[in-house]
Amino acid sequence: MSQNRPPSTPDRAPGGPSRPSPLARAVVAVSRLSTRRPKVTIALWIVLIVACTAAGVLTGTRTLTDAENGVGASGRAAVQLDDAGLRAPATETVLVRTGDAATTARVARDLESRARRLPSVASVAGPSVAAQRTDGGRAVLVRATLRGDPDDAADHVAPLTSAVRDVAAAHPGARLSQVGAGTLQHEFDDVVATDMQRAELFSIPITLAVLIIAFGALVAASIPLLLGVTAVAGAMGALGVVSQIAPNGDTTGTMIVLIGLAVGVDYSLFYVRREREERRRGHGPDAALRAASASVGRAILVSGITVMVAMAGLLLTGIGAFTSMALGTMLVVLIALIGSLTVLPAVLALLGDRVDRGRLPFAGRRRARRDARIAAGHRVRPTAWERIAGVVTRRPGVSLVTAGAILLALAAPALGMKTGDAGLGSLPKDSQVAAAQRTIERAFPGAPDDAQLVVRGTALDRPTARRELAALGARGARVTEGRGPVTVRVAADGRTALVAVPMPDRGIEAGERTVRELRSEVAPTAERVAAGASALVAGDAASSMDSDDVIAAKLPLVIGFVLGLAFLLLLAAFRSARLAATVVGLNLLSIGAAYGVVTAVFQNTWAEDLLGFTSSGTVVPFFPLLSFVILFGLSMDYSVLVLERIREAREAGRSPRDAVAEGVAATGGSITSAAVVMVAVFAIFAALRLLEMKQMGVGLSAAVLIDATIVRAIALPAAVTLLGERGFGRRGGPDRPERVGSRRAPATWEHGRRSAAPATLDADVR
Question: Considering just the CA atoms, what is the radius of gyration of the chain in Å?
C-alpha cells in the first residue's frame, strides 16, 4: 500500500469523501459561489446585519405581558382581567417600625403626606385598620398604588423609593422597609443588567484568548469571534421584528447571546481549522476551501439544523416566554449558519496566507517539525488524541461500559430532582429588597403578596353582589390565613370582579396546597355572589404552579419531538439507523449526567459559599426542559463533526476501527478548543448572581465538558467501533477497497500521509 495518499483529481476535494453526497456538493457549490466574489459576499453579510439591526430599531420590541405569558386557569384569569380593564395596579408596601406607637404613627403620617404629593402615586392607604397595625402599633403598613402600566412599574417606583429614604433620614431610629411590584421588578432588572454587562465584559476576552492559543495567530483567532458577535448583533436586531408576532420574554436576549456565541464560534472554528489543516498538507487555497466545505461545511449544516429543531421543541409548550426563546435562538443559529457557509469561506479566500498574521512566537513550531518528519517518512510519536483513540478502539467494549458507568453515576442524583420556583431565593444574598420582603412577611403574613379571585358573572356591581364578593374574600382569607385587608374591585360593566386576598409565603409546597384549596373549596362558592357566577384563582403562587404543571405535562412531548426529528436528521445524514440511535442515546446520557450535576449542586448546601447562593432544595422548574433542548442541540456539534471525519476515512478505504481512530484524532484539537470556549463562557454565567443563571451556567458547562471528554473521546468512538460495518456500512473508496481480516497494524493518518502505526494501535483488525 502506498505511503502517501493518491494524488487528487480535479473534481475531488483533497481529504474529502471520494463520492460527495448531494448535500456536500450543495455546500461546496455555495462555498465556491461565495469565494468567487469574496468582497461582494462580505459586503452582503454586512448589509444583512445592518438591515436586521435597522429593522429592529424601526419596529421596536414588544415585550410579553403577564396575560400573554400566563397558562392554565391563572392565565385565563389574567386575560379576563385585561379584557375587563381590571388588571391589578402596581402597589408598594412600606413597613414602618419604631420603639413606640406614637412615633410610628407620626412617621407613617409623614410618609403618607410625601407619597400623596408624588405624580407617580395614584393613591395611598395608611394604617387605618387593625389589619395594618401590629406589635401594639409600633409596626404599621403604608400602601401606595402607582400610576401607569403595572408591567412597567420599575419605571415609576423611583420617586416613591426616594421619599421612603427621605422619611427614614428625617426620623432617626425609624426603620422603613419597602417592597412591591416596582421595587422587585427594578431589583431583578438591575441584577440582570449588571450580570449581563459582567458576562459580556469577560466572555469576549476569554473567548479571544482561547482562540489565540488554539490558532496561534491573532487574525485566525479573530474570525470565529467576529462571526459569532455579528450573528448575535443581527439576531438581536431581527428580534424586534419577530417580537411583533411573538412578544419578547425577559430572558430571550440572554439566550441569543449564549447560543449565538456558542454556535458562531464553534462552526467557524471547525471550518478555519480544517482549511488551515488542508493548507498545511500542501493544497492550494481553492482546494483547501473545497475540502473544508465538503466535510466541515456539511457537518455544520447538519448540526445547525439539529440545533434549530431542538429549539423548535419549545414551541410545543405554548408558553409565551419559551416561544420567544425558541424563535430568538433559531434566528441566531440560522444567521450563524448562513455566515459559516458563505461569508466565512469568503473571508478565508480573501485573506489567503494572511490568515496566519499576528502569529505568536513559537506557535506551530512543534507541529511543523512533526509534519516534516512525516513527510520524510520517519516514525513520529502519536499525539494524545491518537493514543486515546488507540486505547478506545482496541478495547471498545470495556471503554463503552466504563464511560456508561461514569455517565450513569453522574446522572444518579437526577432521580431525586425536585423542581420549584425559587421566588426571592433567585436574588443575591445581599439583596435589600429580598430582606425587606422577608421582614414584612414576618410582621404581616401575606401583606407583600396576594391571591386573586377573578369572578365572572352579571350585575356584580349591585350592592348585594358586592357584599357577597367581600364574603367570598373573607372565605379566601380564612384559607390563606393572611393578615391585611381584602380588596374588591368591579369592572364598569359589572361582569368581572377582582377579589384580592392576602397570601402568606410559607414555601412552595404550602403555597401550592393553598392554591388547590382555594380552587376546590372557595372558588365554587362564587355561585353565591350571583346566579351563574364562577371564579378562577390567580396570583403569583397560582401562576407559578400552573406554569410548572404545563412544563411537566409538555416535557415528554418536547423530548419525543426532539428525539424523533434528530433521529431522522441523523438517519438522512449518515444512512444508518443504528448509528443514529447510538448518537441519540449517548446524547441522552450526557444530558442526564448534567441533570445529576445540577441536582447535586443546587439541591444541597455544600456549594452555597462556593457559588454564592442559598439553596431552596429545588431546581428552577424550567431547567429540565430548557436545558434539554439547548444541550441536545449543542452536543450534536461534536458528534456530527467526529462522525463526518470517520465517514471520510471509511470512504477513503480505512477499516471501521482505523476510521474511528482517525476521526477522533483528527478532530481532537478542534473540539477541545471549542469546548474550552463554551465551558469558559458558560462558567461565567454560573458566577452571576441570579439563581436561574447559576443553574443554567453550571448545567451547560458541565454538559459540554462531559460531552467533549467522556462522550466524544470514549463513548462515541467505542460505540461506533462496536457497530463496525453496521455503522457506516461497507464503503471503501474506489482506490482503497476494504481489507477485511487484515492482520497488519492499523495505520494512522496525519495531514494526509500514512505514518507508522503507534504502539497503541497495534491490535489486529478483526
Answer: 31
Q: How many CA atoms lie within 13 A of 710 on its CB side?
A: 24
- The DSSP letter of residue 150 is G
> Distance between CA 523 and CA 533 in Å, rounded?
10
Measured distance between the N- and C-terminal CA atoms of the chain, rounded to whole angstroms: 19
Other beta carbons less than 10 A from residue 557's beta carbon: 12
Closest CA to 144 of 134, 130, 129, 159: 159
Contact yes or no for 618/420 (Cβ under 8 A) = yes
pTM, to two decimals:
0.81
Residue 407 cell numbers, joined: 455517565
What cell numbers appear for 225 in the block? 469571534
Helices vs strands, H then E, count in the chain: 27, 11
Q: What is the pLDDT of residue 741?
A: 35
Task: Spell out the residues 6+ positions from residue 171 whose beta carbon is closer than 8 angstroms to its own.
Answer: 98, 103, 106, 107, 110
Q: Are strands 487-490 and 753-755 parallel, antiparallel or unpaired?
A: unpaired
Angle among Cα 408, 414, 420 to the nearest 5 degrees reads: 170
- Count CB atoms within 10 A of the CB of residue 282: 13
157-171, 358-372, 494-508: which has the minimum mean pLDDT?
Answer: 358-372
Give the tens place of pLDDT for each residue, 252-311.
888 888 888 888 888 888 888 888 888 877 788 888 888 888 888 888 988 899 999 999
Sequence letter at residue 733: G
Query: Which of these, 534, 532, 455, lies nearest to 490 by C-alpha position?
Result: 455
Calpha distance 715→706 (Å, rounded): 11
CA 555 to chain centre: 16
Query: What is the rounded distance in angstroms from the CA atom of residue 675 to the CA atom of residue 682?
Result: 10
- Sign of the four-CA dihedral 511, 454, 501, 89: positive
pLDDT band at 706 (very low <50, low <70, confident <90, very high): very high
Tell me, rounded to whole angstroms, the distance of Cα 452 from its chain centroid.
32
Alpha-carbon distance values, 91 to 88, 153, 444 (Å): 9, 9, 16
* DSSP states of 675-688: HHHHHHHHHHHHTS
Reading the block at residue 523, the C-alpha cell is 372558588
Q: Find, among 679, 635, 593, 636, the residue nearest to 406 by Cα.
A: 593
Cα gap 375→133, rounded to integer Å: 88
Kindly state the percentage of the chain with pLDDT values over 70: 87
Burial class (CB in 10 A: 0-12, 13-18, 19+), 109: middle
Torsion, Cα of 126, 130, 134, 140 (10° steps): 0
Per-residue cell: 440? 414584612
Q: Which residues contact 395 (CB under 8 A, 6 or more apart)?
A: none
From 621, 480, 615, 453, select the one nearest 548 (Cα to Cα). Answer: 621
For the chain, what percentages of helix, strand and coil (3-state, to nearest 5) are there? Answer: 65, 10, 25
Cα-flanking dihedrals φ and ψ of residue 694, to 5°?
Answer: -60, -45
Q: How far is CA 236 from the centre of its chain?
A: 15
Report the pLDDT value the prediction gives residue 379, as an integer from 0 to 100: 67
Distances in Å between the Cα of 729 and the Cα atoms of 157, 666, 764 are 67, 21, 20
pLDDT in tens, 137-191: 788 888 888 888 787 888 888 899 999 999 999 988 889 988 888 888 888 888 8
Among 356, 290, 344, 296, CA closest to 42: 344
Q: What is the pLDDT of residues 716-758, one digit of tens each?
A: 999 999 988 776 655 443 333 333 333 333 343 333 343 433 3
CA torsion through residues 357, 361, 363, 367, sign: positive
Distance CA 440, CA 426 (A): 18
Cα–Cα nearest to 345, from 302, 295, 289: 289
Phi/psi region, residue 16 (left: phi>0; alpha: psi -120 to 50; beta: rest), is beta
